[in-house]
Amino acid sequence: MPPNTARRRYPRSSMSTVISPSSGVLEQQYGSDNYAGICPEAWAAMDEANRGYAPSYGEDTWTERASDAFRKLFETDCEVFFVFNGTAANSLALASLCQSYHGVICADSAHVETDECGAPEFFSNGSKLLAARSDDGRLTPDAIHELATKRQDIHFPKPRVVTITQSTETGRVYTTAEVKAISAACKERGLWLHMDGARFSNACAHLGESPAEMTWKSGVDVLCFGGTKNGLAVGEAVIFFNRKLAEDFDYRCKQAGQLASKMRFLSAPWVGLLETGAWLKNGRHANEAATHFARQIEGIPGVRVSSPVDANAVFLQASDEILERLRQRGWRFYTFIGGAARFMFAWDTDLRRVDKLAADLRASAGA
User: Fold this and answer.
1) 354 with 292: CB under 8 angstroms?
2) 40-278 has which fold?
3) What's the 3-state SS for the chain?
4) Looking at residue 331, what is its pLDDT?
5) The domain 16-37+284-364 belongs to what CATH superfamily?
6) What percent of the chain has pLDDT over 70?
């Protein structure tokens, strides 16, 4: 390997100030909602599933219960599959909607475009992502129309799918009216509509509408429902509202290494989330924590919330000096989207710890 390209696969933290000496565990941080642990409801269900034996590869009662819980939640007889992570969920779902010569329309900040290492193209055997410029991560019917009609000759990939992220990578939430308008644009052009719902629970909590109304009743064909950011240890659900599109999807999962032999440990935590209502409670708390933080930092000189706080993300604009002082105080965050500092809040966010973050930000700004 050439010099300067080697890197540790699992790098050690350089921020020793945020490590608890007694446990070796990070104090609560907001660089990502993936930092959070497993919520009690998911843990309890997994513990119960761990008692005794169960059939493998999804032939167990836990997988059946979780699938039926999704059907009840969405008020329809949908097809449900469980995979390990969001990249697999999105990539395999899109691959099921495309041939290799097709195109997938997405926002230029979409996770499938910026953070999945070419997996959508790989699993679809070459379908091209067609990215539309978007300031807030939301696609519009006009942007879809422009990309779908820009090239219609045989030398360019044929648009076949539109994928939207709910909530977006910039923390914005599509209204149901906006999803319906996008669906209408898709139908006009003969395109399928896929929703990346890594933070779907947060979007539901924000809108206060039913999952059914936010998805298939508004024209969504396939949803990837995120569990990892909602209190699960690992796992996402791929939900086909159009059951015909799910043909052979189980084979895709198997071929991609996403068919869990002990499937109950992927599906049981979903039972804990869905049957208790924790999925929505968790999303609501994370959103409220983000709103609390945004309110706490109002008026700090040189610090500005750069976009509306719809879900569980807060993006800040501040000078490099202010952000570096905040890092020196032990806080972790990313600045990979438009230079804004991103803070993500989770199901277990302690508001007292958020107040500490706000106070340190104020001190870093010299306020």
Assistant:
1) yes
2) Aspartate Aminotransferase; domain 2 (3.40.640)
3) CCCCCCCCCCCCCCCHHHECCCCCCECCCCCCHHHCCCCHHHHHHHHHHCCCCCCCCCCCHHHHHHHHHHHHHHCCCCEEEEECCHHHHHHHHHHHHCCCCEEEEEECCCHHHHCCCCHHHHHCCCCEEEEECCCCCCCCHHHHHHHHHHCCCCCCCEEEEEEEECCCCCCCCCCHHHHHHHHHHHHHHCCEEEEEECCHHHHHHHHCCCHHHHCHHHCCCEEEEECHHHCCCCCEEEEECCHHHHCCHHHHHHHCCCCCCCCHHHHHHHHHHHHHCHHHHHHHHHHHHHHHHHHHCCCCCCCEECCCCCCCEEEEECCHHHHHHHHHCCCCCEEEECCEEEEECCCCCCHHHHHHHHHHHHHHCCC
4) 96
5) Aspartate Aminotransferase, domain 1 (3.90.1150.10)
6) 93
Q: What tokens does 64 get? A: 């059946």
Question: Residue 7's pLDDT is what?
Answer: 46
| Mean of pLDDT values over 80-107 | 97
Task: Identify which of 316, 327, 322 has the alpha carbon closest to the alpha carbon of residue 367.
Answer: 322
168/268 Cα distance (integer angstroms) = 27
Q: List the domain boundaries for the chain.
A: 16-37+284-364, 40-278
For CA atoms 293, 298, 304, 308, give the dihedral sign: positive
Asked whether the predicted pLDDT for residue 78 surpasses 90, the reply is yes
- Kindly report, residue by residue over 255-311, the tens digit of the pLDDT: 999 999 999 999 999 999 999 999 999 999 999 999 999 999 999 999 999 999 999
pLDDT value of residue 23: 53
18-75: pLDDT as tens digits: 444 455 567 999 999 999 999 999 999 999 999 999 999 999 999 999 999 999 999 9
pTM of the model as a whole? 0.92
